[in-house]
Design goal:
Number of strands: 3
Helix content: 25-40%
Order of helices and strands: HHEEHE
Distance between the termini: 87 Å
Strand content: 25-35%
Length: 128
């Protein structure tokens, strides 16, 4: 049986490379935590991916997608339902007018991520 013997130089090289990898991992974790404004490890582990407060819902009012100012033909997206934000629960209903069906479907996809219990979500052809 052959016993492999490590020299001090080999052990020092392995330790040095382990230290470098650990430093890079720690620096990466620190930069991510600072960029996201996490203050404690529990913030990192248990923070929601996005806020569902009323101010953060995707609104179309007073934007180019507001149906009140839309002209021509296109697609009208309507999304309505219940939003749960931990202990808060509220109803929302939004409508937006878009030139293409793809834009309408993209907006509905964003609304689906906010609305927990949808009542209706659809895109219909629309002419203003």
């Amino acid at each position: 049986m052959v016993r492999q013997v490590s020299t001090r130089a080999q052990v020092a090289r392995k330790f040095g490379s382990l230290c470098k990898v650990s430093f890079v991992a720690l620096a990466t974790f620190g930069l991510v935590a600072c960029q996201s404004q996490f203050q404690t490890p529990s913030d990192l582990l248990f923070a929601p991916t996005f806020s569902k407060t009323r101010q953060n819902l995707p609104y179309t009012r007073n934007t180019p997608y507001d149906c009140r100012t839309f002209t021509g033909s296109g697609w009208k997206g309507i999304a309505s339902g219940t939003v749960y934000d931990f202990s808060d629960r509220y109803q929302t209903s939004q409508a937006g007018c878009f030139k293409t069906q793809d834009q309408c479907l993209a907006w509905l996809s964003a609304m689906r991520s906010f609305i927990d219990v949808p009542r209706f979500i659809r895109c219909n052809p629309y002419t203003a």
